[in-house]
Amino acid sequence: MTEPSAEGRDPEAVSKFVESFAAQLVEAGMQRMPARVFAALLSSDPGSLTSAELGEQLQVSPAAVSGAVRYLAQQHMVSREREPGSRRERYRVSSNQWYEALTNRDAVLKRWEHALREGVDSLGARSPAGRRLAETLAFFEFLDGEIAKVMERWRVHREQQYGADGVA
Amino acid sequence: MTEPSAEGRDPEAVSKFVESFAAQLVEAGMQRMPARVFAALLSSDPGSLTSAELGEQLQVSPAAVSGAVRYLAQQHMVSREREPGSRRERYRVSSNQWYEALTNRDAVLKRWEHALREGVDSLGARSPAGRRLAETLAFFEFLDGEIAKVMERWRVHREQQYGADGVA
DNA sequence: CGCTACTTTCAGAAACTTGTGAAGTTAAGG
DNA sequence: CCTTAACTTCACAAGTTTCTGAAAGTAGCG
């Protein structure tokens, strides 16, 4: 709604999107501040913002930005770049990178699989419970492979659609 | 480890699995008590436990069990059944059901898509930010379809492997 | 129809999380 | 090298979540 007539971005519209998208991420289990920072980056025109810009737009302290960004970088959802000739840092989200990270829940899956394997082991592979765990494990192992294939298909699909290869 | 020699389940081994699997679920964003209850059900031989059994095994109050179970039922991760001729309730996890529920993050995806659509709309589909959001949206829409297909392939795969159709 | 076994709801105490301000660290530029 | 802009770390206060005990609700069974 409120399709912007031309140049200037309406800061209120941006903020509205940031908060509502962040809220969804929070509901899905993400911490609030990383979610807000991420949404702000995603909806910035250049796809990147400085620490100060983030702090101002979200009305939070530099400390909060710092923590959020560290988390996002660990999850490979944003990358940090130093502005040359300045001690200012920019945080950037590139569309491919971030949703590839989303599906790279690899680490999570691997840990689930590990816990399940231990469970099968210690409950006995032939007990009913053990068999249930084993089947669950098999499902996740199957998923591992499928996720990679889905991402591959997406890359193809996307290239056909947009010819895009690097929307900033 | 500690492969059980025969019948009796080692309550300590069970508890160790429950807590470690629950911890992984928590890390992935699930609340602690639902995670523990769920792990307990998953690793029970019959695949179901009563409220009292859960309370005892996990050392928590009936109130806590009640809350956790309500949440799990809402997410379709367990089903509730009334024991005939008793006011006792049993909570059950059936392997297929639960991980199908896991991938039925449909609701979550839909809400993300909704928020993104509003974002594209209000930032303008032709602005750089709008285009980024649109691409993200396209990705999720693509995912919607792929998830269904993956689950379908899993059902086939599983049937070939186990011939299984309803491991309790 | 009331008793009792069970589950749910609710208010509040305890534990945990989250964001802040202030002090500490790093490195650009004179 | 010193100054200073910028980021990071840390202790703590505010806010939130989570679990409990107690009271209320529900439904089998005599």
UniProtKB/TrEMBL annotation, chains A, B:
Keyword Calcium set for record: no
Where does the HTH marR-type domain lie?
Answer: 29-89
- A Pfam match is MarR_2
Matching InterPro entries: HTH-GbsR_regulator (IPR052362), HTH_MarR-typ (IPR000835), WH-like_DNA-bd_sf (IPR036388), WH_DNA-bd_sf (IPR036390)
> Which superkingdom, per the lineage?
Bacteria
* Entry keyword DNA-binding: yes
Query: Which keywords does the record carry?
Result: DNA-binding, Transcription, Transcription regulation
Which protein, by its recorded name, is this?
MarR family transcriptional regulator
Q: Which organism is it from?
A: Streptomyces chiangmaiensis
